């Protein structure tokens, strides 16, 4: 277990320590881990290159820090608890010892099939324990995993396989999601038509779907592990050896293959998990993310397992068999920490209270959210109806690139404020800068969110394109990591994320974050969800275009709703933030991870829907067609 903060005084103390001497601070955190050889140098960095190295010269394997380090004490405790898609199917629990043996067995199978240290292994699997086993098996032998969310199309999968130059793909015959089966193996077959480099496909039998096995290329998982030993000596890794590649959600453009390395990621994911969720031995922790996203990597797999925690993994979707499924799971396993995304909260909020009222949610201690700004209405609903006014909400701001949580309350320690991610974790040095990169010091400021000092979990490069890495994150502002997000630091020094900087709207000289305006619109009782973008406006520079999803229409009809939304925004923010155009839409375009893709809406608002850019990560193209059909223009 890594060091844990217990009080506000403790937080302030640790934070100050981490800023005064970051190297000493992280060296101390790193002492809790198991190293073959300790590092020679804690940190070497240069944001110009950029080149970032943590724990240089250190030798270790991350899986030994999950298993060997803990087996004597917690070997017989559950590590992974798995809830299947169908609530009537048997759930599965793997103890640390059992998971260890499975990981070793599969690691030996990979070796047997010729996978070597440094090879890339593409993983396109449903949310089943074997997905976790596969990732850890790669880490055991030093292969680099590249998990691709199992909702992506064949073309998107192929892009990612080609980009990473993977020679092997791990998949399943199919994946259960609600009433549907995703034909994973068929999708892999289609993708591989354009990936001649792939020599081997391992297929786990999950849905017993009718699939074709390609002779000489495809092998069943159960055949691959047959006769393999459950002992596998961990590959000795350098601290800076690559651990995994993970492509970003693609909210803003072509996904980037973000690269994380071994030691820094290990230390950071473990440290942040322990503190942000205030995990105590014996707690049951449930993160609803898919492992195909960074949240699943850091906070279903690595962070919890490095802390000896019991991590719950759910195969299905929140709305099947009904919209109470998350709460059934919380009730069934007596979940203590629950971590989800604003998009899920907003959609469950819209489904009504009947799915919640008779569920026992009294085990919950901490609620978390990540992925997008959470609007106040969703925050209060989560707080009142799920947390029943007892559980602090940790609004965790971070990115695929940051490896772990950066800005977040510590539950029960840092007082929360709806829609604020509050304060940076120890070791994190956020700054807000203006357009020309000047740091805005003091409180009550707004601007571009940057980091002026490295932290162990930060990405080291974009796979195969270091220059894109430099340009995207280190060239906008000199000597700083630029997050791409806008933020405000309020009068208390609390951070609030205002949305992506690309989405900031400049109306008559007022810079407005999309999150602020959406927050006000979503507070309207008939609004389920909204997205706001700017469009060229002859007088104001930019006009405000709001796309709004309503549950039902009031007696005033559409016009009435538009009017009352404008009034709501005027009273919450001011008349300058009032939307010029309000289009009522059946849904919003989202990434497969559930985030609103405002860049598509911006094109619609600009009247330029012919060129939508990269839409491979878009969840539902139908919604976009309907939005384009109903687009408004100013008269
Ligand atoms: P791409 O970089 O490809 O456009 P993406 O940024 O959506 O995709 P992720 O790394 O999954 O990919 O998401 C990180 C982003 O999500 C952050 O930069 C921020 O915009 C948003 N985000 C995450 N957590 C929060 C939060 N708690 N509050 C507000 N925004 C958040
Ligand atoms: Mg991003």
From TrEMBL:
Pfam families: ACAS_N (PF16177), AMP-binding (PF00501), AMP-binding_C (PF13193). Keywords: Acetylation, ATP-binding, Ligase, Nucleotide-binding. Transmembrane segments: none annotated. One of its GO terms (biological process) is acetyl-CoA biosynthetic process from acetate. Its EC number is 6.2.1.1. Residues 516-595 form the AMP-binding enzyme C-terminal domain. The keyword Ligase applies. GO terms for molecular function: acetate-CoA ligase activity; AMP binding; ATP binding. SUPFAM superfamilies: Acetyl-CoA synthetase-like. Residues 13-65 form the Acetyl-coenzyme A synthetase N-terminal domain. InterPro entries: Ac_CoA_lig, ACAS_N, AMP-bd_C, AMP-bd_C_sf, AMP-binding_CS, AMP-dep_synth/lig_dom, ANL_N_sf. Residues 68-461 form the AMP-dependent synthetase/ligase domain. Belongs to the ATP-dependent AMP-binding enzyme family. This is Acetate--CoA ligase. It comes from Aquipluma nitroreducens. The lineage of its organism: Bacteria, Pseudomonadati, Bacteroidota, Bacteroidia, Marinilabiliales.
């Amino acid at each position: 277990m890594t060091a844990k903060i217990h009080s506000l005084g403790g937080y302030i103390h640790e934070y100050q320590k981490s800023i005064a001497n970051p190297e000493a601070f992280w060296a101390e955190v790193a002492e809790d881990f198991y190293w073959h050889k300790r590092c020679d140098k804690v940190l070497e960095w240069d944001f110009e290159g950029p080149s970032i190295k943590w724990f240089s010269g250190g030798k270790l394997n991350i899986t030994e820090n999950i298993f060997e380090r803990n087996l004597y004490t917690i070997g017989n405790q559950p590590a992974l608890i798995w809830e299947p898609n169908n609530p009537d199917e048997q759930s599965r629990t793997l103890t640390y010892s059992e998971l260890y043996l499975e990981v070793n067995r599969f690691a030996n199978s990979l070796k047997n099939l010729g996978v070597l240290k440094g090879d890339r292994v593409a993983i396109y699997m449903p949310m089943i324990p074997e997905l976790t086993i596969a990732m850890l098996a790669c880490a055991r032998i030093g292969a680099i995993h590249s998990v691709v969310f199992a909702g992506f199309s064949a073309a998107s999968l192929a892009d990612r396989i080609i980009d990473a130059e993977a020679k092997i793909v791990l998949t399943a015959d199919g994946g259960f999601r609600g009433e549907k089966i995703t034909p994973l193996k068929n999708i892999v077959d289609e993708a591989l038509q354009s990936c001649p480099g792939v020599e081997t496909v391992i297929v786990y039998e999950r849905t017993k779907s009718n699939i074709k096995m390609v002779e000489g290329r495809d092998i069943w998982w159960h055949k691959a592990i047959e006769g393999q030993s459950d002992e596998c000596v961990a590959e000795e890794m350098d601290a800076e050896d690559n651990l995994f590649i993970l492509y970003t959600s693609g909210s803003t453009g072509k996904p980037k293959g973000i690269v994380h390395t071994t030691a820094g990621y290990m230390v950071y994911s473990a440290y942040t998990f322990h503190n942000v969720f205030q995990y105590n031995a014996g707690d049951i922790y449930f993160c609803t993310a898919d492992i195909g996203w960074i949240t699943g990597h850091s906070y279903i797999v690595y962070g919890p397992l490095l802390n000896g925690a019991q991590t719950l993994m759910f195969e299905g979707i929140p709305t099947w068999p009904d919209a109470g499924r998350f709460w059934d799971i919380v009730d069934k396993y007596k979940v203590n920490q629950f971590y989800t995304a604003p998009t899920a909260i907003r959609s469950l909020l819209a489904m009504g209270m009947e799915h919640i009222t008779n569920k026992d949610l009294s085990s919950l201690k901490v609620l978390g959210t990540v992925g997008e700004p959470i609007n106040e209405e969703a925050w209060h609903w989560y707080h009142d109806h799920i947390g029943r006014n007892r559980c602090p909400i940790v609004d965790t701001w971070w990115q695929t690139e940051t490896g772990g949580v950066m800005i977040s309350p510590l539950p029960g320690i840092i007082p929360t404020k709806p829609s604020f991610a509050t304060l940076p974790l120890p070791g994190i040095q956020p700054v807000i800068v203006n357009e020309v990169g000047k740091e805005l010091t003091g409180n009550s400021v707004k601007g571009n969110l940057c980091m002026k000092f490295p932290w162990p979990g930060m990405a080291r490069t974009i796979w195969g394109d270091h220059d894109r890495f430099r340009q995207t994150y280190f060239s906008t502002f000199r000597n700083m990591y630029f997050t791409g997000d806008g933020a405000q630091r309020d009068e208390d020094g609390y951070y609030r994320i205002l949305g992506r900087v690309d989405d900031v709207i400049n109306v008559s000289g007022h810079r407005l974050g999309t999150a602020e305006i959406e927050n006000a619109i979503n507070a309207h009782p008939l609004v389920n969800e909204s997205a706001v973008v700017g469009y060229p406006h002859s007088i104001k520079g930019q006009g405000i275009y709001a796309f709004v999803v309503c549950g039902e229409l009031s007696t005033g009809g559409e016009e009435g709703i538009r009017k009352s939304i404008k009034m709501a925004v005027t009273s919450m923010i001011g008349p300058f933030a009032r939307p010029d155009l309000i289009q009522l839409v059946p849904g919003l375009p989202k990434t497969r991870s559930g985030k609103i893709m405002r860049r598509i809406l911006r094109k619609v608002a600009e009247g330029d829907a012919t060129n939508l850019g990269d839409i491979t990560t878009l969840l539902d193209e139908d919604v976009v067609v309907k939005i384009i059909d109903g687009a408004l223009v100013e008269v």
